[in-house]
Amino acid sequence: MGSTFLLSLIGGFVSDTFISRFTTSIIFGFIEVLGLALVTIQAYSKDLQPAYCGKPTCIDGSKAVMFYFSLGLLALGAGGVKGALPALGGDQFDHKDPKEAKALARYFNWLLLSTTLGACVGVTGIVYLTTEKHKWYWGFFISAVATFIGFTVLALGKPFYRLREPKMADSPIVRITQVIVVAINNSKLALPDSPDELYEISKTENDFREEIISHTNQFRFLDKAAIVPKDSKTTPWTVCTVTQVEEVKILTRMLPILFSTVIMNTCLAQLQTFSVMQGNFMNRKIGNFNVPAASIPIIPLVFMSILVPIYEFFFVPFARKITKHPSGITQLQRVGVGLVLSAISMAIAGIVEVKRRDQAHRDIMKPISLFWLSFQYGIFGIADMFTLVGLLEFFYREAPIGMRSLSTSFTWLTLSFGYFLSTVFVNVINAITKRTSSSKQGWIHGLDLDSSHLNLFYWFLAILSCLNFLNYLYWASWYKYKTEEPDHSEPKAIDMTTEQLPVEEVPDPTEAKGEDLSTRPLVAEEEPEHTEAKAKDSSTGPLLVEEGSTVDGGVTEVHEGPSSVQTEDSKQQPTS
């Protein structure tokens, strides 16, 4: 699991740099199906399975090569798809359009719901078939067929998708490296007094990357990468645009948010390991049916399957009326709710474990019901619903357009770190408590939970989760959301390639003569008594002439909102 989520970075990087997100999803989907097929073959053929040897692991030689190669393909394929597919779905919505912005938030909710429904089938039907009916290879075979059908459906939808082909110049690694290198090279230069003097591209230039990001005052050192060189030619390795610098700032601001959610995913790893072990020591019967221990995760999945539609159809519209936010609440608020619930889930898990162990000590033949685990699983399922979707939408919305796959992979990266950190915690805590306890045994030793102190480990994670939430609050309040567009109170920019520029009435002496102002040129024409004046803002193209503009001394000032641009007669400066 940890490797799969870690390898999602590869899928994100490839789809942002070399090929489209659709093509990336199809290629890595084929690799995933191939991995599942190899696992199925080895699970079916007795000749490809190792003989029992009485040791912890009995596999070696060519059988080990095939086993780990097929698992590697499975991890690479599934990880690559996770890195590209969510961003491909997000690309189908224009988040600048109010209606599509609402649909984008809905998309991530339905993405979670569809994944949850698939997991429900996996932990019930496939688990029952493989463990109770002893059809081990059938579980892998069904998964391979279902995955193949899924990617076939995805491929058939290609004519309807909005696809974006990346350019090598758009490579996230290259753009990030350029900013860091140029900022270091310009470290001895002084920043200009105004950010307007930093280098920025025009929307009409050929290398325009679909968005211009407004300047922010955080990480001012990186702004030195946008200082216009005086003696050298402007190249990507001598000066970077403000937008490019802001892209690096955005990714830097995301990192504390990313690491603040690792502890929650460490808690998730416990529910997929120790809680399943707890289930083995509990009464798993429902009437005459014996629930497989591996099917215990169905509890949070059922909660999520019910709560996602409730959240989408009832909570979001209600919250939207109050907050006016397309998603009801902001992405970081949603993540925060999930972090609080995960701490509560761990605290309850410790209480349930105390009850289970006490009952086992009193009468081992009458264990408590499996459904006591539904409290910790149910609360954590709600926490996961809030946090996972919140992170996916947050990393997608905030990321620069050319880095959305890589950024979305950060969600899976937190899961990967959580799984690996879980292993570290178990080993470290066992080593420490083994030395300090009177019994010379760790909190979690061996397979017998009745003689362990799993409840203390759960409470340790609950306390750590509370401290982590305080850390998250600090970084969430510090984070500045990306701004791409000017304030709505400013005049609206018009695309001159598709629309005519409206001209406001401008007081002029010729008005008394009955001259039609709508036919006058926007810029003052050359006249005997005036010098020719031209006005242009390289960042927004042609501008509206604000009411009250004058022609005086050969200088025409064209105003847009609070800023102004001067003509060639005045000193030309780089514009924001």
UniProtKB/TrEMBL annotation:
Residues 563-576 have a biased composition (Polar residues). It is found in: Membrane. Residues 488-576 are annotated as: Disordered. The keyword Secreted does not apply. Keywords: Membrane, Transmembrane, Transmembrane helix. It comes from the Eukaryota. Its main location: membrane. The chain crosses the membrane at residues 26-45, 65-89, 110-130, 136-157, 254-274, 294-314, 335-354, 374-396, 408-429, 456-475. Pfam families: PTR2. One of its GO terms (cellular component) is membrane. It is a multi-pass membrane protein. InterPro entries: MFS_trans_sf, POT_fam. One of its GO terms (molecular function) is transmembrane transporter activity. The keyword Membrane applies. Belongs to the major facilitator superfamily. Proton-dependent oligopeptide transporter (POT/PTR) (TC 2.A.17) family. This is Protein NRT1/ PTR FAMILY 4.5-like. It comes from Gossypium trilobum.
